[in-house]
Amino acid sequence: MLAANFDWQFIWDHLPDFWEGLKQTLKVAAIGIAGSLAIGIVLGAARAHRVPVVSWLAATYVEVIRNTPILVQIFFIAGALPHFPGHPIRLEPFTIAWLAVVVWGGAYNTENFRAGFEAVPYRYREAGLALGFGRLGTFFNVTLPIGARIALPSTINTNASVLKNTSLLTAIGFAELTNTAYSLESESFKAAEVYFALGVTYLIVVWTLSGLTRVVERRLALPEAR
Amino acid sequence: MPDWVDPVAHYMLHEGLKNTIRIAVFAVAGSTLIGVLLGTLMTIRFLPLQSLLRLYVEVWRGLPIIVTIFLVYYAFPTTPYVHYRFGAFTGAAIGLTLWGSAQVAEATRGAVQSIPREQHEAAAALGFGWVGRHLFVILPQALRRLLPPLVSLIANIIQNTTIASLIGVTELLATGQRSIERLQFEAGANSHAFAIYTALLAVFFCISFPLTRLARFLERRLV
Q: Could you tell me which residues come within 8 angstroms of residue A154 by beta carbon, excluding any fewer than 6 positions away?
């Protein structure tokens, strides 16, 4: 029991609103996690195998994204690209939303997977080549299955961060969970109730995601790490 | 350089960057003090205390920082028993401190636990109590492991001060956005959004890049 003037009924009545916002958050987060994992594997491989040009571009991409605030990146996509000199780029709010988190998470996952692929002992790759696999064959049959599983624990943090960072999309008015709460508060003035419910919702979702990915991690862990 | 650049740069650096650094200094200092204290306490084997500290860490690490800041700034004034209204600057600094202290606490716990037990025993044999043992023997050694995450924390907190712009603090991002609006108002359709947002990215990069490099260097050297 918090106190008599804490309006539980208000939270209960507005659960459907929270659910609408949560659906948008989960949708963007799902695209964000999938997309950033894909970018991470491709560019991480390019970095680990020092593919000319691609590796250098990937390193620049990683440093730029990791050393600038994601909020400024979101505003850059939403507010600066439409004024790109000579060639304005206007995107749908939903496109901006998933693009921002994919680009951000991709940079972090590139580092995660680069470290994972580099941790695969060189003799494993030599063994793959000796068995007659080409360079790509060695990557898909040796480096990827082992290196991705080494990288898995560090990608878990990135996944959770991608989910949490979708909350910043409220700044451009994208109607995800935080934005829903913000609008609800500004029309009802029930700040304590709204943000308390918002915090609890995020904790449930973030903790569930971390728990689920930890189960997946344990299932996929390398035999010697089990 | 076009005419508009000079006053805008002056405003962004003297008003915006100053506030960004001010918030960051408070948040980094607060996070380090609270985080090291809580992280050290987390190594005590006393279940109620351990679960309480674990809850603190998991809650503030689990919440997006923007939600923490909204809680402190918008929700606290109407929360029963709290009813406390912070200014936007203080609210942002507290929100960042809650998040940062949770990060530091987790890192400190790991660093303290990595110190061999013999060090505790030797310090105890020399007559140090729990506090003296940790303050003068364990933490100075744990600092080696703690330094790289602390340096990355500074970079992260500086980046995350941009969230303060959403509750109306005129930090770097907010001053940039106000400049864009003012220029658009004065010059009509001729928008400087692209130039100013690019400049914002560049300024943050110049601050953050040396810090993340330093963190990586320390990690390689010290651990």
A: A112, A115, A116
Residue contact A192–B79, C-beta within 8 A: yes
Per-residue model confidence (pLDDT) at position B4: 85
The residue type found at A30 is A
Q: Are the CB atoms for B141 and B116 separated by under 8 Å?
A: no
* Selected residue with higher pLDDT from A89 and B189: A89
CA A215 and chain centroid, separation: 18
Structural domains in chain A plus CATH codes: 18-225 (1.10.3720.10)
User: Per-residue b/e over A122-142, b at no fewer than 16 CB within 10 Å?
Assistant: eeebeebeeeebeeeebbeeb
Cβ-Cβ contacts under 8 Å, B77 against chain A: 191
What's the pLDDT score for residue A1? 43
Dig out the tokens for B75 from the structure.
């929700």
pLDDT band at A8 (very low <50, low <70, confident <90, very high): confident
- Asked if the model's pLDDT at residue A223 lies above 80, the reply is no
Specify whether the CB–CB gap between A161 and B65 falls below 8 A. Answer: no
Cα radius of gyration rounded to whole Å, chain B: 21
Q: Minimal Cα–Cα distance from A194 to chain B, Å? A: 8
pLDDT digits (tens, 9 = 90+) for B110-169: 999 999 999 999 999 999 999 999 999 999 999 989 999 999 999 999 999 999 999 999
Which residue bears the tokens 């860490």?
Answer: B57
What is the sign of the dihedral through the CA atoms of A166, B210, B206 and A45?
negative
Cα(A102)–Cα(A96) distance, integer angstroms: 10
How distant is the Cα of B51 from the closest Cα of chain A, in angstroms?
A: 16
The total number of residues written for chain B in this structure = 223
Chain A to chain B, count of Cβ pairs less than 8 Å apart? 128
B204 to chain A: which residues are within 8 Å by CB?
A: 67-69, 72
Q: Answer whether A206 sits within 8 Å of B62, measured CB to CB.
A: yes
Output the average pLDDT for chain A: 92
At B164, give phi and psi (nearest 5°): -60, -25
Average confidence (pLDDT) over A164-189: 93
Maximum Cα–Cα distance across chain B: 76
